[in-house]
Amino acid sequence: MLNYDPKKPPDPKEWLDLDEGERTDLICDYHDAVGEELPNPQLHAALHCIVENQIAMGEEVPSRTLRRLVKEGLDRHEAIHAVASVLADQMYQTMSKASPGTDMNERYKEKLESLTAEKWGESA
Q1: pLDDT surpasses 70 at 80
Q2: Do 37 and 44 form a contact (C-beta atoms < 8 A)?
Q3: Which of 84, 92, 77 has its CA nearest to residue 112?
Q4: Alpha-carbon distances, residue 104 vs 24, 71, 88, 116 (angstroms)
Q5: Which stretches within the chain are classed as H helix?
Q6: How much is the pTM?
Q7: Cα-only R_g, the chain
């Protein structure tokens, strides 16, 4: 895999055959090439990469959420950002306020299920 375009799904096998560093480098290269100014490019690429990994591995809820957001009018790249925003929030919650006994994976899935293109547009 020589380049990455978040508007087109990468081949899952090719994507997963790359190591994590190669994946994040491809994501950074894409954002650099389109001139997207990011406050923290490495963190942005890491979150992007996690979402792409979940989709490539066929994780049901993130994959279904991405497809639904695209049907609601987001392009695939923006849908990845929307899913990544839920992921980032969940990571923050896990590290700062997690209650004992709370299944953070289930909470992540619940938040993804309730995410809509309209809600994402209001927060972006």
Answers
A1: yes
A2: no
A3: 84
A4: 25, 27, 12, 20
A5: 12-17, 20-33, 41-56, 60-71, 76-96, 104-114, 117-123
A6: 0.85
A7: 14
